[in-house]
Give the backbone structure.
Amino acid sequence: MVDIFMGLGSFKLMLDAAKNLKNISDPDIRNDAIVALQEQIVAAQESYSALLESVCTLEAEARNLEIWESEKERYELKKVTEHSKILAYTLKESEQAAVPLHWICPDCYSQAKKSLLQHAVRTPGRAEVLACQTCGWAGYLSGMWYPEHGGARPLSRPAR
């Protein structure tokens, strides 16, 4: 908002300078004033373009948030299987008519993204997981990350 008011103030200054050009009788001084006015006009156009780009970016972000707000209402947090402790988002029963059952990543969901979880088998241990290809989140359906260490990851290997 400050930029907008500053821009309006500079337009008033440019308008006043343009009105005063007719009162300048010395051609050299008038030419210098015209060049200065042109520089101010170019600077104002650049500022206007930058502000317009910012407004367009903010409008696009607002539209994306509105779309996400309506999309996220279609999902609910549930256990992946009856006996599982893994929670992920899936379509509400009322939304499942035309779309196959799928799960979306809870981490991505919290960041306003929709990323489908994919079934994968990881070794060692032949662990079955639902994995997010976007952020690396994984929910273990069966097996362990490192069965030889009681399921815990060794400290020397970085987590995904």
Q: What stands out?
A: The chain is about 45% helix and 20% strand. The first helix runs from residue 2 to 20.
